[in-house]
Amino acid sequence: MKLAGKFILIFILAVVAVTAVSSHFTSKQFFASVEERHEEMTDLMTHQAGFHEAIDSGDPIHIRQVVQTVSDELMQVRWVWFEQTTSREFRPALDQASIVSERGTTSSLVGMANGERALFTYYPVESKGRNGAIEIASSLEPVDAQSKQTWLTALLLIGVMGLFSIGVVMTAGVRWIAQPLSALTRKMERVGHGDFSSDLEIHSNDELGQLASAVNQMCEQLQEQKCKIENETNQRLLAMEQLRHADRLKTVGQLAAGFAHEVGTPLNVVTGRASMILTDHDMSPEKVQENARAIKSESERISAIIKKLLDFARRGGSQQAVGDLRQVVHRAVDLIRPLAAKRSIGIKTTMPDKGAFCEVDFNQMQQVVMNLIDNAVDASVDGDQIDISLTPDIDQQSWVLDFTDHGEGMDLETQAKVFEPFFTTKGVGSGTGLGLSIVHGIIDEHGGKIELKSAVGQGSQFRISLPVADAGDAG
Fold it and tell me: Cα–Cα distance between 170 and 5 in angstroms, integer?
């Protein structure tokens, strides 16, 4: 509607301008017609028989009779002398000083005492050394009345054209412009909210119709790109999950050797106690129960070890929930401690007394902790210690999880590439180079960040920051 109003204003201004110019030139034409008639009257008088003889005679009565023969109601014609001593009857109506030239026709527009305007024309004539002129006076009241009527007609025309233009623009403008533009605007708003359906219908052969067709075509292309991006995103997520699962299986393989000892000890106890029951026929019922309880305890221990490995190796989608980071760290440390113990590498954990709640995927975060501890074990020498600490940051907005080893450290070039996929400092067959890349991706998905501090000969520290979650949301 605002655009239609602008069209109405422009149209009315154009009508006003055209009408004003037309009225102005019409008024000038009326005035020019009066001047032209004065010239015709002067020419008629000067060519009238006996005019020059009467002027040469100098007889005022004779001159008046000749001049007045061409007078009428609209034009008053008389003879005047420019001499100061002449009688009032023959003096010019205007001061001689206002008559521009005595040798050429002069016209002057004069305001009369009654408020009307009059046009005076003087045609100088020399007779026997005396200077005189034909004076023609015409009232411009008819011209002014005609001009006023013209302007009134123009104003009426402007009003009529204004009302007509409002009707036309409101009818045609709303239908042909406002409604299509409103439809385009609503469609653009839907596109902004992700609706790429090509349902815009504007049936016209003008530019707005072409624009609607282009918008529909654009929406179709955007919908295709959206589907393509969603498909590629799903494939990427599936590939990332497959990589993470493969990384977990790799870690499980590394842990198997350490858990062989953990499982071997309780298996030996189970085997020994079972053999005692089978071979000692004189064993008392109390001793049998004691051996049975030992077998049950060690079997549960073996079952718990196997369950931890299976849980860690199991494939699963991302399921974030509010949980205690302390439990994630403790469980990961329990899994990897046997592997570190084979090299006499200690793992020291410093945990807060209260719950460290974050919104995380338990399995994914456990994979992060396992990877970082595994890397720390690889970077350490036998007998070293790995320090793991969990603390709140200064603003109490994040939990900070540090993994510190005391190995050889990394130079700047290695630090710059450490999170790149397939980059590894381990020997051939010892690593895929995906571990830290997967860690970085998981932390990023959880809205956190991971940083590395290292120096050659001074060990390395990986620092993870995760947003604090409300403990009340914990399941």
Answer: 8
Dump pLDDT digits (tens) for 163-183. Answer: 776 777 667 666 666 677 777
Q: Rounded distance, CA 255 to CA 310, Å?
A: 12
Percent of all residues in the chain with a pLDDT value above 90, rounded to a whole number: 11
Which residue, 269, 123, 53, 386, is CA-closest to 277? 269
Task: Yes or no: say if 329 and 390 are a contact pair by the CB < 8 Å rule.
Answer: yes
Cα–Cα distances (Å) from 68 to 75, 77, 78, 189, in that order, read: 10, 6, 6, 85
Q: What CA–CA distance (Å, rounded) separates 78 from 95?
A: 16
Whole-model pTM: value is 0.44
Helix or strand (DSSP H, E) at 18: helix 2-46
Spatial neighbors of 201 by CB under 8 A, at least 6 apart, are 183, 212
Predicted pLDDT of residue 432: 53
Q: What is the pLDDT of residue 100?
A: 47
Per-residue pLDDT of 144-162, as tens digits, reads: 777 777 778 777 877 777 7
Q: Residues with Cβ < 8 Å from 54, sequence gap 6 or more?
A: 62, 63, 65, 66
> Tokens 């990427």 correspond to what residue?
236
Overall residue count recorded for the chain in this entry: 475
At 320, list the tokens.
Answer: 């974030």
Structural domains for the chain: 2-153 (3.30.450), 197-317 (no CATH), 323-475 (3.30.565.10)
Per the prediction, the chain carries an average pLDDT of 76
Contacts of 226 (CB under 8 A, 6+ apart): 194, 196
